[in-house]
């Protein structure tokens, strides 16, 4: 790679000078000449990092860790960490290996629990690394150092507790647990024969949300205190926590109640008690 600033070759961390114009009240060293509507804003030269073209093997820039609990064929629980998840209302999209034990269990039962660990649970989550509920261990995982562990809760030192609407257990130590049912399955990279079937996105609908009292906002019933909730974050395979709020959020002016959708009412109608397995075709 050629460094267009310095002229040398090889990977570099190039920087270039750019002339940037900002309003006089911006956080910069701009100088305003005069006052009133006719005032001129003088540009200031500042140093901004340039972009370098790279090809990282993964694009995990930082998302919360989710411990997915599911039920194996023999009725024993499986527990697996993942971080390719995002939320839309009371639904979530989960990016999973299409052949993993967790995926097989979810497609077979149509159920799972999404357990969100706090940053204090990092050691427990890390004990689940390089473990699988698949026996025999698939070759691709053997090559990466995985081993079969039948008791994932025991390995992690975590406690299973009964859910209300699904058979998979919740994790008692996780400050947030969400019971969910599978609504749809979306193949990923299905147009590429080499990847077909290896990656899927599973859409789940939340039926119950359980939280520890110490992360609830004082004086409210249904609000999480973001200053008390400290999710565990995975960024490029490493585990991190959150720091304090870095800037006031304009978006936070919108009351949370304005986001409430029809899936919340559906969740209320999900019966509590001994749940049944939802029959689903293997995908």
Low-pLDDT segments: 1-12
Radius of gyration: 24 Å
Tertiary shape: globular
What is the count of structural domains? 2
Which CATH architecture of the largest domain is right? Roll
Report the biggest beta sheet as strand number plus sense, adding barrel if it closes. Answer: 7 strands, antiparallel
Instruction: Name the structural class.
Output: mainly beta
Helix share bin: 10-25%
The CATH C-level name of the largest domain is Mainly Beta
Within CATH, the superfamily of the largest domain carries the name Electron Transport, Fmn-binding Protein, Chain A
Strand content: 25-35%
CATH topology of the largest domain: Pnp Oxidase, Chain A
Q: What's the count of strands? A: 18
Oligomeric state of the chains in view: single chain
Helical region count? Answer: 5
**What separation lies between the terminal Cα atoms?**
44 Å
Task: Give a description of the structure.
The chain is mainly beta and 283 residues long. It has two domains: 1-54, no CATH class; 63-239 and 252-269, Pnp Oxidase, Chain A (Roll), CATH 2.30.110. It contains five helices and 18 strands. It has helices spanning 101-109, 122-127, 139-142, 152-156, 262-269, and strands at residues 15-20, 31-33, 40-42, 44-49, 63-64, 66-71, 77-82, 85-88, 91-97, 111-116, 131-132, 147-148, 160-161, 170-171, 176-188, 199-211, 233-235, 238-240. The strands form six sheets. A seven-stranded antiparallel β-sheet has the order 7-6-10-15-16-9-8, sandwiched between helices. A three-stranded antiparallel β-sheet has the order 5-17-18, with no helix packed on it. It has a two-stranded antiparallel sheet with strand order 1-4. A hairpin with a 2-residue loop joins strand 17 and strand 18 (238-240). The longest helix is centred in the middle third of the chain and has 9 residues, at 101-109. It is globular, with a radius of gyration of 24 Å. The model is unreliable at 1-12 (pLDDT under 50).
